[in-house]
Amino acid sequence: MRPEEVLTLRVSIPSEENEDDEAAARAHKAILERLAKIPGVSSVGASSSITMDGWDSNDPIFVEEFPRANDQLPPIRRFKRIAGDYFATMGNPVLAGRSISWNDIENRRNVVVVTENFAREYWSDPREALSKRVRESPASPWREIVGIVGDIHDDGPSQEATPTVFWPCGAR
Q1: How far apart (Å, rounded) are the C-alpha atoms in residues 78 and 64?
Q2: Is 4 exposed, middle or buried (0-12, 13-18, 19+ CB in 10 A)?
Q3: pLDDT digits (tens, 9 = 90+) for 93-136
C-alpha cells in the first residue's frame, strides 16, 4: 500500500546450517523476530516471492469439492510460501478467516490462505471457501483454507489479478 515504506531483502539459509525444514522455519522465525525489534519497524513478514518480483511459481491446484477426471489437470495457479505477518506487512487485507500463523508452521498444520479471486472461481461468496480443502497433486495431503486475502497483481498493476494460494513456509 505504501511501497516507499517497505524494505525487502532476500535471505538464503544454507542447507548445511539446518538439518530439516523445521530447523529452517525456526531460523526464519528468529530472523523475523530480530528484524521486528528494530526501531521504526511496524511489521515483518516472509515470503518465497513478493508481489511483482518476477518470480512465478505455479502448480495445478486441486479443489476437493470440484473433482476432475483422472486425465484432467486442474488450472495452474500461482503459489507462495509465507510466514510471519506477511499480509499485514504487504498491506494485503485478510477479508475472511485468518492468516497463517507460526503455530501452523511449527505444528505442520495442513492449511492455506487463498486470494479472493481464487475463492470466487469456485464459490460465489469467497467466505464459502473457508474450511474447504485444496492440494497441489493427487499424492499431496489436503490442506484446509483458513483465510481469504485481497487479490494481488503479481504480474503488474495493468494485468489481471493473479489467483494465488499461500502455503505455510516449510510446507511440503
Answers
A1: 18
A2: exposed
A3: 999 999 999 899 888 899 999 999 999 999 989 999 999 999 98
